[in-house]
Amino acid sequence: xxxxxxxxxxxxxxxxxxxxxxxxxxxxxxxxxxxxxxxxxxxxxxxxxxxxxxxxxxxxxxxxxxxxxxxxxxxxxxxxxxxxxxxxxxxxxxxxxxxxxxxxxxxxxxxxxxxxxxxxxxxxxxxxxxxxxxxxxxxxxxxxxxxxxxxxxxxxxxxxxxxxxxxxxxxxxxxxxxxxxxxxxxxxxxxxxxxxxxxxxxxxxxxxxxxxxxxxxxxxxxxxxxxxxxxxxxxxxxxxxxxxxxxxxxxxxxxxxxxxxxxxxxxxxxxxxxxxxxxxxxxxxxxxxxxxxxxxxxxxxxxxxxxxxxxxxxxxxxxxxxxxxxxxxxxxxxxxxxxxxxxxxxxxxxxxxxxxxxxxxxxxxxxxxxxxxxxxxxxxxxxxxxxxxxxxxxxxxxxxxxxxxxxxxxxxxxxxxxxxxxxxxxxxxxxxxxxxxxxxxxxxxxxxxxxxxxxxxxxxxxxxxxxxxxxxxxxxxxxxxxxxxxxxxxxxxxxxxxxxxxxxxxxxxxxxxxxxxxxxxxxxxxxxxxxxxxxxxxxxxxxxxxxxxxxxxxxxxxxxxxxxxxxxxxxxxxxxxxxxxxxxxx
Length: 586
What we know:
Elements: H1 3-8, H2 19-24, H3 33-38, H4 68-93, H5 99-111, H6 120-143, H7 163-170, H8 183-207, H9 214-226, H10 234-263, E1 269-272, E2 279-284, H11 288-298, E3 303-307, H12 318-321, E4 327-330, H13 338-344, E5 348-351, E6 367-370, E7 380-381, H14 387-395, E8 407-410, H15 414-418, H16 421-429, E9 435-441, H17 450-458, E10 463-468, E11 482-483, E12 486-487, E13 489-493, H18 498-512, E14 521-526, H19 530-541, E15 548-550, H20 559-569, E16 572-573, H21 577-585
Parallel strand pairs: 2-3, 2-5, 3-4, 5-6, 6-7, 9-10, 9-14, 10-13, 14-15, 15-16
Antiparallel strand pairs: 1-8, 11-12
């Protein structure tokens, strides 16, 4: 590690860990020093999600259900994508940028996110295409008079011809495959990789709407290629992490443009949590295009469509809720409860993106996947032919009677919230609104996530809670009342709708002539997977300080790297709701 460079920039304090950093790091080792010893080559090592075993890493099987064979194939795919990225970087130097390569890179990255793709055969196809595109780009670069850096074998790697051979080959490229690397440099490599994975997922979603930005593709390739560059020190890598945050904001902006361009801006909408008598389809995941495909395929067939998980905000889009009357209500809660909830659902189920868990035998024939998500033995459908899903919904009993349930409000995107900006500004000025809390992010299994429920319950009556992503399911049914006609609980949308939250904050900074850190606004964030990691980088890139993060810190962040984040951004762990609310409000 370049100690002189870091010292000059005051990046670390000779390896010491500040009090705040230590509080965020319970049980975290120094960038996998011990994890590597506990992860022999015939097993696996993964620590990309918040629930990684023991807060250190999964070595036998992923907490998500990922097996060692899939882990090895994912590691190999990432390695080949680095080679493809090196070729793409060289291509741009001779004015070559290939859209198929750009889109494939993001889709392939998406497949390696937590709880997305579990089918080994699918990775065999992705690996083949990755190397094919790499070699095609290398040939084009040379034909244009360019040169390729071959210092990394990611550029020259030849794939084994069988799936078993690929699995064995992939074990050479695990996260801890370079035991001699400085732990802090490894940590920054992994921070950058996971941020790019999250950004790649949003970029892939946006590309479905043909919403693209060449600068984003350029960064993704440059960032992946940089991980192979042994000359890059910690300062350069940290700068790339923050650049990832900046580019991720653009990715979310593009996805927002795609969603709203196709389906209109969300409007406040009441969503029933009950059910109608009759045949039923449940749509989970994140993809609005896939939901519309289901609505089109099921129209006129006496089938009611329900949302699950992060599809809940879809009810706020006029082009979905108002256009398709058989989109009725929402069923269930967050991704981690799906085994119990799917087991009881009386219809067919479609997973449209990440969040799938190993299906129980009782409903395996009822569940289908599409897009990047997949599970061995589960039928994978093209969104242009959903007839197996429709047929299964008709075969199943559906609801035998109407089911009563409460209703909740969604649809408070930035357009809706800023539509009452005058009331918000007046409320802050006359002190009827004391503070805003953005309580959002991922949900998960850990009991410590009940912190977020308690925090919202204890938020004073003169405060407003903004929420987004599946973390809302810890408190989405709470009736908090309103302030001057503004609901105290505002559902901004999906995880990518962090873009809307940023736009709300930016508008308020202009109204009060201050920066985001000067607003009566606090960020209380929960994370689980790589899209949430990318969003955290976005907030940091915007200069937002005093973020409270939980329920634990990423295992891939070393004490030294954490020290820099604590020092520069006052990133802090969640404590107790009472203490945190008191500290924020004074």
